[in-house]
Amino acid sequence: MTIPSTTERRVRRAHLATTVLVTAICGVALLVTMLVVAGDLPDRLATHFDQSGTANDDLSRGMALTMFGLVGVGLPALLIAVFAATEWWRGEGARAFSGFLAGLPVGLSTLFAGLVLANRGAGAPDQVRLSPWVILPALGLAVVVGVVVALLVPRGLPRPAPETVTPVVLAPTERASWFGRVEMGRLPMVAMVAGVLVMVFATLVSGLWWLWLVTALVVLPIVAVTSFVVTVDRSGVTWRSALGLPRGHLPLERITDAGVVDVSPAEFGGLGLRMKPGALGLVTRSGSALQVTHGKKRFVATVDDPATGAGLLLGYLQAGDRTTR
């Protein structure tokens, strides 16, 4: 299916312009809020609260406002840049993903604006209390904006038709193996490293020791889902991360088909190891990927040279059919 260039530009522009515009409006609104109340803010702002809403930690005013801006607007802007490189506006999940990219800055900026207003006029951080009415409107507004954007932007561009895969012909006693690597692209990797560095910076500046634990909990999953090895052999399909875990195996007797499809991270809701109803994906980029069907479920991996892996798997399936006849 050939998509007219005008249609492709229109869809791309709609998704990009909408999410960028919403993020920019949130940035302006958060900045205006900070400027309006800056003179009424104490030297240190309450930034962390316990379950009762009582402040239990704080940061200097300048550092707190900087962090609010970086997380509330900088993070969503970075996500838009990363996923723009993967062309998230392609595929069935494009509208929902645009809704997420629009709702995220709305929720975060509303939350941080509420924190700024909660600190207004406080004599000390321990006098600040966080009301549920600061969190609930942020969550509700994020959901509303996300749903509206998802309904307004056009449907995602259809993915290209699956490639034709030629099965590898195997003799009855012949055995072969194929190895493919799934690796995160440069831009997403840079974005993840930047996110980790921001967390390290925040930990060093704030002096909160427990943030080191949070940073470690973020770094380990990132390392575990940025590089995978996929193996196709007589036993079926095996995959594992660079750390050895997570890992998985699809026995050959359960596999019903294999092929090459064009995928986008938006279809799986992001990058890395992704799960959705009926599908498991190792998705680190946009483009061609190995797809293995087993019953009503499928396994998708953005490996290099997926046609060779699919061809070998089809060869084993055909060899098994010849053996059982």
UniProtKB/TrEMBL annotation:
Keywords: Membrane, Transmembrane, Transmembrane helix. It comes from the Bacteria. The chain crosses the membrane at residues 20-39, 59-84, 96-118, 130-153, 187-204, 210-232. This is DUF1648 domain-containing protein. The lineage of its organism: Bacteria, Bacillati, Actinomycetota, Actinomycetes, Micrococcales.
